[in-house]
Write the structure tokens for this entry.
Amino acid sequence: MNAWLVVVLVGAGSYGMRFVPLLLADRWAPGPRMDRALRHAGTAALTALAVAGLRAEPLTATGGETAVTGAAVLVGSVAALRGHSLSVVIGAGVAVHAALSILS
Amino acid sequence: MAPIAAGYAPFALLVGREAAASPEPLAGWAANFLVYGGSAQLSVSRLLTDGAALATVVLTGLLIQARLLVYSASLAPLWRHRPLWWRAAAAAVVIDPTWALMHARHARPGTDRELRAYFVGAVAALTALWVALVTAGMMLVTHIPTSATLDLVAPLALCALVVPQLRDRANLRAAIAAALVVLAGTGLPTGLPILAAMAAGVLAGSLGGDNSRDDNSADDRSRDDNPKGGTQR
């Protein structure tokens, strides 16, 4: 019962946070400054989620694993910067991580 | 969107595995539609499994989801000419890849009809694949290995979304500030470092003034004023 209540409450709160700005969209238009600030906040949120995911224990339990993870992310990021597809970015990063994990 | 959803596959399987291990697996599955956010689903499932207090679980889930307020506020100017029922339906599927892809798509030329079709196709593919993979994760719970390499996939998928935005200096500053804040925020309750990182990102992004290379605000607004016109860039 608690689990259902949690899911309903978190779901309702999530929907409210998603819907309120869209509900007010025709009455409120952010200026250029606010528009840029919102985009920076979005970029920061994605970065924060990525970094938080990378801090997960199996990826950074030891110095060696941290270095392997860092190398994999570097390769993936270079692929992303060069405009490769998401599949290539993930494939490159995972391949580097798997190869270095076997070697180390 | 399908490649992005595929990129999230290991993460979705992990979410499914944790939902299956939670006290109410069906509630964990329903969260795919009600919560629609992998990070929050994962944290909520884990906290419920650990027997955390109801208020703690709900607050954690909402803190993690708080970034959606910013995503929606950022998407609002792009969708303000759409009918209320459309915005109400679209609100249900605003999430990290939706936000990143919609801004990337709106930066390219396209008619209003094409933009709408892109959004509908993207969220349909994302939702269908996400639900299917979480369900698979719940059914294959004992067969999913724990591996550091698999744990790397979700952060890499996020990198693929965020790194192309870093060509813009202001975004780069925002990302660096966010990363530093998250690294410094170890030990804080789940969700808080993300909010702090967003605040730091806004501050850092604004520090250097207006030097965006890909500022599409004016174009977005002009398209909104003329919904059928599309961009002429």
